[in-house]
Amino acid sequence: MTPEIRDVFRIFAVGFIAAILHTVLKQSGKEDFAHWATLVGFVAVLAIVVGYIDHLYREITSVFLLQ
Fold first, then answer.
1. How far is CA 1 from the centre of its chain?
2. Pick from 21, 44, 43: which is nearest to 34 by CA?
3. Can you tell me which residues the record assigns to a coiled coil (predicted)?
4. How much is the mean pLDDT over the chain?
5. Is 41:15 a contact under the CB 8 Å cutoff?
């Protein structure tokens, strides 16, 4: 399994767990914690994606010779 596919599954898992946690907390009347759980999930996914955005930026600058 390539690292990219592993990260896609990791993003899916974080999103799935954050969605379930958000639903459970919202149904139990703790909407504040539900929003925090969603925010933490978003930050976790963003931390995974930042590396790929950096790689994409470097590829674009090297293709168009912007350095």
1. 20
2. 21
3. none
4. 92
5. yes
CB 48 within 8 A of CB 7: yes
- 3-32 tens-digit pLDDT: 889 999 999 999 999 999 999 999 999 999
- Distance from C-alpha of 11 to C-alpha of 45, rounded to nearest angstrom: 6
Q: In this model, does residue 66 exceed pLDDT 90?
A: no
CA distance linking residue 26 with residue 55, whole number of Å: 37
Which residue is it, tokens 């931390």?
47
Give me the helices (H) in the chain, please.
3-27, 31-63
- DSSP state, residue 67: -
CA separation for the pair 29, 12 (Å, rounded)? 26
Tokens of 57: 């930026």
